[in-house]
Specification:
about 600 residues; mainly alpha
Length: about 600
């Protein structure tokens, strides 16, 4: 390889660079190139250009040590001092490896050898300061660069703008864009893209559109605005933008896949498939086609199109697009959701035969399917097969196993999972403990429930909103109202009384058929109003039924009006209960009938 590259030294610079890029694709190519440069002691002085190309390739591959060797060879054997361009390639490589000491050492060496720091050198230093220090420190570097007479360009500002945008300091980022314009430096695509990306990621469509209008049009700029529309699920604007991109030929594989995903979300599976066919046959796009197919497979899964999924997997193979781990896993999940385990296992076997390694998600899907069928032996077999593949069962895997045992009332085996996880160095999470607490609460085994809660606390966990609501219902049934509200006060002190917890408290109090509970409920409802928290639909249903049971019909009607305003008219048995109570009290029920409004 060294001999072949040596013969290229008489070629033009472009031919030489292209040949280098081609030759260096093979393993060991980079080392051969370095050795070739170091061995050729009789290269003419014009070899500087060839050394620059070598340094460029080494810099792209972050080979800082080899760059230093080439520069030492330039000094010692070629008798010329590495110039600013040579040092810039070394600085660039150090930047890519976040080597702050290497950058500082190189800058000091350049100054000591009177090698000028040009615009590129300073831009690298600014970017390094942004990455390794702060954008404020980089701005000082920018001012030093300007005061020393070095020309600023858009790349001097771009890393600082990007750093401020990343930190969500959008005001300063936009001020720097204005500063560039005031100095006659036209902001380019890479100047605007950090702002557009941040707004898109935050779902701020209005500001993203503002930046989009200012930025020079490019495929990347269009795709970033598309990301903003996707983030906010604005299908109509996304579709409109994609049509414009198609007209102006700004589409790439990302854009087409976004269009496929959009059609899938709209339920237009056939249009999504047509788009993929167009990508493949008309645009000759083969990169990332699998991503589009996986979007469609997932859309079919959500719509229970099981037979069509199998057909699509076969079509993919016929078109030489090999389904990957995600493709197979999506199909397996679809079949396990419907407890069609034979088909799921068949797909699993095809996946193995195709050379793909199942991941934890794939195994979890099979475990869930068998757990739904109460096939515990198969669930355990799945976990063993997972271990055989070198995979560690996830918390979700263990949660599935616990759920299966609890459905079979095997509480000892379920609690044994906690010990098994601990032995493997995995900390049981709140989901597992909630499953156990819920089981004990339903079985009214309150001593075991309290033991589980103590175990939870010993592990440094605290109940979340869901578990707190479960505890409310238990306390309402087993403790006095005073004890229940002592628990509520402790939650307030810990700032855990959010809207979900308040709704859980309301539902739990509705389980008590006492006037005292009614008074306490009204106090809770006033607190919610003060905090501008809304009652859920299910809480309102419980509340109306409770107030009717304890004879507070007027209050029940008031809650029914709240329901109508927020969720719609009551119906069925609830409607009949309100009407019957109103009839006995001589209260009009006309407001409950839409046609009489």
């Amino acid at each position: 390889l060294g001999m072949r590259i040596s013969r290229l030294l008489s070629c033009s610079r472009d031919q030489f660079a292209d040949a280098f890029l081609y030759e260096l694709r093979g393993a060991g190519g980079m080392s051969s190139m370095v050795n070739m440069i170091l061995d050729r002691k009789n290269l003419p002085r014009t070899a500087m250009d060839h050394c620059h190309y070598a340094l460029k390739l080494l810099s792209k591959n972050k080979r800082t040590g080899d760059i230093e060797n080439v520069m030492a060879h330039m000094r010692n054997n070629l008798q010329f001092q590495p110039d600013t361009i040579s040092y810039n390639y070394l600085l660039s490589a150090y930047l890519k490896t976040d080597n702050a000491n290497g950058i500082k050492r190189t800058i000091d060496e350049m100054k000591s050898k009177d090698v000028a720091l040009d615009t590129v050198s300073n831009n690298i230093l600014i970017e390094a300061t942004c990455k390794l220090t702060s954008p404020e420190a980089a701005e000082k570097q920018l001012k030093n660069m300007e005061s020393s007479g070095v020309k600023l360009d858009q790349y001097s500002y771009t890393p600082i703008i990007a750093a401020y945008a990343k930190n969500r300091n959008m005001t300063r980022a936009r001020e720097l864009i204005d500063e560039m314009n005031s100095k006659g430096i036209e902001p380019g695509e890479f100047s605007y893209s950090p702002l557009l990306t941040r707004y898109a990621q935050d779902g701020d469509v209005q500001k993203a559109e503002e930046i989009f209008k200012l930025a020079p049009p490019s495929t990347f700029i269009y795709n970033t605005l598309l990301m903003a529309y996707s983030k906010t699920k604005n299908s109509s604007k996304a579709l409109e933008l994609l049509e414009t991109m198609q007209e102006k030929d700004y589409m790439n594989e990302f854009s087409y896949n976004a269009l496929v995903n959009l059609y899938v979300s709209m339920g237009k599976i056939d249009k999504a498939l047509e788009t993929l066919q167009f990508m493949r046959e008309e645009k000759n796009i083969t990169k990332d086609l699998i991503l589009g197919y996986n979007y469609i497979l997932n859309g079919m899964r959500k719509r229970n199109m099981l037979s069509r999924m199998k057909e699509l997997l076969n079509e993919m193979k016929a078109n030489r697009i090999e389904p990957d781990t995600v493709s197979y896993s999506t199909a397996i999940i679809a079949f396990t959701d419907k407890q069609k385990m034979a088909e799921a296992e068949q797909l699993f076997s095809q996946m193995i035969s195709a050379g793909y390694t199942p991941n934890v998600i794939t195994f979890n899907a099979l475990a869930v399917g068998y757990a739904k069928n109460s096939d515990f032996a198969s669930v355990l077999d799945i976990i063993e097969r997972m271990k055989d593949k070198g995979l560690t069962p996830s918390r979700y895997t263990y949660s599935t196993l616990v759920s299966a045992y609890l459905r079979n009332n095997d509480i000892e085996a379920a609690e044994g999972i906690i010990d098994d996880m601990t032995e493997k160095g995995m900390t049981p999470d709140l989901v597992l403990y909630t499953q156990l607490v819920t089981y004990h609460a339903k079985k009214k085994n309150y001593s075991k429930m309290n033991e589980t809660l103590h175990s939870l606390e010993r592990r440094g966990l605290s109940p979340d909103s869901k578990l707190i609501c479960i505890l409310f219902s238990v306390y309402a049934e087993t403790k006095t109202l005073g004890e229940l509200f002592e628990f509520v006060d402790s939650l307030k002190a810990k700032r855990k009384m959010n809207v979900q917890v308040y709704n859980g408290l309301v539902t739990s109090l509705c389980l008590l058929n006492t006037q005292e509970a009614g008074d306490r409920l009204n106090s809770v409802l006033n607190e919610m109003k003060e905090r501008k928290m809304n009652l859920s639909h299910s809480s309102l249903i419980s509340l109306i039924r409770f107030k009717l049971k304890i004879g507070r019909v007027e209050e029940a009607n008031q809650h029914a009006k709240e329901m109508i305003a927020s969720y719609g008219y009551p119906y069925g048995g609830l409607l009949q209960n309100i009407q019957d109570a109103n009839s006995r009290k001589g209260i009009s029920s006309d407001y409950l009938i839409p046609s009489k409004q």
